[in-house]
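The pair is quoted verbatim underneath.

:::
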Amino acid sequence: MEAVPRMPMIWLDLKEAGEFAFNAAVKKSAVNVPRDFEGCSTLRKYFGQLHYLQSRIPMGAEQEAAVPIAWTEIFSGKTVTHEDIKYEQACILYNLGALHSMLGAMDKRVSEECAAGAFTYLRDHFPHSYSVDMSHQILNLNINLMLGQAQECLLEKSMLDNRKSFLVARISAQVVDYYKEACRALENSETASLLGKIQKDWKKLVQMKIYYFAAVAHLHMGKQAEEQQKFGERVIYFQSALDKLNEAIKLAKGQPETVQEALRFTMDVIGGKYNSAKKDNDFIYHEAVPALDTLQSVKGAPLVKALPVNPTDPAVTGPDIFAKLVPMAAHEASSLYSEEKAKLLRDVMAKIEAKNEVLDQFMDSMQLDPETVDNLEMYSHIPPILMEKCAALSVRPDTVKNLVQSMQVLSGVFTDVEASLKEIRDLLEEDEAQERKLQELLGKVPPAQGSPPPPSPGLAEVSKECSKYMEVHEKASFTNTELHKAMNLHIGNLRLLSGPLEQVRAALPSPTLTEDDKQVLQNLKRILAKVQEMRDQRMSLEQQLREMIQKDDITTSLVTTDRSEMKKLFEEQLKKYDQIKVYLEQNLAAQENVLKALTDANVKYATVRKALAEVEHKWNTTVQTLVASYEAYEDLMKKSQEGKDFYTDLEGKAAKLLEKARAACQAAEANRQQILEKEMKKQPPPRPTAPKPALQKKLPELEATGLDAGDLPLGSLVLPELPEELRSL
């Protein structure tokens, strides 16, 4: 995976500045910065000096020295003007984050953490009402995108460095977590309306990356299982990685070629790993393959963080050019109060984030989606992909007929070839038997002991060709059988798809729920709605708290307060947050009860869920099987035609060989007849022998009958022993 092509990254446009009553040189250097790290340095210095300026001169909203400041809003292109120096700071900070995102999306893959830090500081220290592109929702989206891309850069480096598989899996899982947060923001209706047309493009890319990096995480979990020789776990992790990668490929439609190239590369890696692991386990290790949900989930390892922004760091901002203007006592006290507010916010956010983490982990373990908890709607209609196949077959009514005819033709040619080869084999066996008999008569081969006599050259050639054709035929026979099995498997499905839609719908499984089951579902959905309501209320209270802290400026009070009374003033001012803190505490405390109720409801839902899952699995399997049958039709017809062409050619060769075999057998038979006739001519007549005593006694009787010895069979006439020289006569 270290050579996998890089995925593209999202980067943000810089805001354009409008009118601002500043020196032209300052405006030029701060607005038209180069798109490189020197530009980032310039923006940081300018931001720091603005901080020093606003702490001395009343240029804030509705203050004496406030001047109009105009910037272009990114998404609408409108010019937004505020009489507030903090607006200038906020826009510069936004551009700092955007420029870092632009640099981070380049080949060097750096600077994403800096971008996240800029947007985090902007979210936590400035009002969100200046413009749409700096709203709380958009900044949260930007932060999660930048953190996700920073973690993605770290993942690339980890794979290049060949880090341990488990660490790479955790890094990849954290990429998924960051992108899931970004995706939640993109799916928010309010955020979508703010982003406009780019929302869909970003959402498609982020959703694709979620599945892609989840596949990478499970790929490396499978590699870890391989290292630990847990071969069953290895198979399920690689299978899960393959499934998630297939989902990423579906979502990657319309993405640039770099994305497609990365997906193809990763598919080669994961597909090869899965096929090898499954084959090894099936034939060698035979380990049970566990269900994925029984294995420990991969917990992300957040190894990147938003780099903090310090507007008063002299190493970044340079020397304070306004140091000699006015005393800083009041502003120092205000900074102390700001720190108290920040501490309060950190304490509250720590509690919220802890509860959110528990809630997210709980919901992830439950795997309950309110929108698809029953998904009964899907069973009421034929899925579009199946409708498409039915429509395609409706204009091709002869599909099944053509396939059946093709099968029949192929079977006929196959049978003809087999008959020709059998006849050739029978002729060869008969010839061999006749040749053996001849050899036995001639006394050249002892009966039942000799090996088959060598055939004639013509028959030897026929036998050799026949063996070759038989071998080819046997191999093709297996392929032919498999092709017929495939045809028989798909013909029924093709008939179904060619028929009325009512039959297709009836063939798809659908769940049957009792009234009790329906009640269980309704109760579960009600509690899931409560969970979402709790989430929304928590986010709203958090937003209210942040806005209160942003608007809370007691600088005027601090000017007239004695230094010894500062602590008391801080305590009194911070009491204004007590009420909203109480509401948040109540919301957080309610979580335990809500989750307990959800646990109970989920226990009751288990049986229904299992039944629905089984039906959904059968439904998906049926749909996939029908689609596969449609897609297999052209391939089957092609292979059938190839089979016919192959067997037609083989039939011609077998027919020629049969004629050749007949001719060779006739020639061999004629040759045997000639040999037999020659051998018979070479045989001497039977030698006479002395008459047996019994026959000698009967000779007088024969003489009495008047018969001549020539009238008797030679075998029955036994002559007396003759001298050697007379025997030839």
Q: What stands out?
A: The first helix runs from residue 24 to 31. The first strand starts at residue 17 and ends at 20. The chain is about 70% helix and 0% strand.
